[in-house]
Amino acid sequence: MSMLNHVSLITVLGLMYCFLPKFAQADDTFPSVPAHLKTIKSHSIQKVSVPSEKLLSAQKHGANYRFFLNLNQASIDIGVDEVTQNKGGTRSFSASFKTDDKDWTLIYTQGNNSGFGELFGNGQHLLIEQRGEQVIAVDLGLSGLTPGLYENDVVGERKIFLASAKNLNHIAINDDVVVVDVMLLFTQNIVDTFPGDMTQTLMEYLVFKANQTFFDSRINMRLRLVHTQFIDYPNPSSIVALNELRNAVDDDPNTITDPSLGSIATLRNSFGADIVSMIRTHDLNEREVCGIAMFPNSDVDYLVNVSNVGISGGSNCLDTFTHEIGHNFGAGHQRVNGSSQGAEPAAGALIVPGKFNTMMSSIGTGDINRDFGLAVFSNPDVTCAGVSCGDAIVANNTATINNFAQINAALRVAINESEVPSLLPSVNDRDGDTVFDVNDVFPFDPTESLDSDLDGVGDNQDAFPNDFNEQQDTDLDGIGNNADNDDDNDGTDDFADALPLDPSETVDVDADGVGGNADQLDNNFQETKDNDQDGIGDRKDLDDDNDGVPDYFAPSSLLETEAWVVSAGSDNVLRYNSQTGTFIASLLAVPTGGFSFRSDAILSNAQQLFFIAFSDVLAFDRQTNTIRRVIDRSLLSTNFPAHLGFQDNTTLLVNNGLGTSNIELFSLLASGNHPGDATSDSAVWRDFVVNGNRLIIAERNTNRLLSFSLDNLTAAPQVLSTQGLNKPEHLAVDSNANIYVTNAGSKDLSQFDSSGNFLGKIISAGSGGLGQPGCLTIGPEGNIYICSTDTDQVLKYDGVSGDFLNVFVEAAAGGLNQPVSLVFAGLPQDEFRLHGEHDSDGDLVNNLEDAFPLDATESVDTDNDGTGNNADTDDDNDNLPDTYETANHLDPLDGSDAQQDADNDGSSNIAEFEAGSDPNDPNSTPVTPETRVGGGSIGLSWMLLVLTLVLMRRRKMLSRVNE
Question: Does 800 share its domain with 896?
Answer without folding.
Answer: no
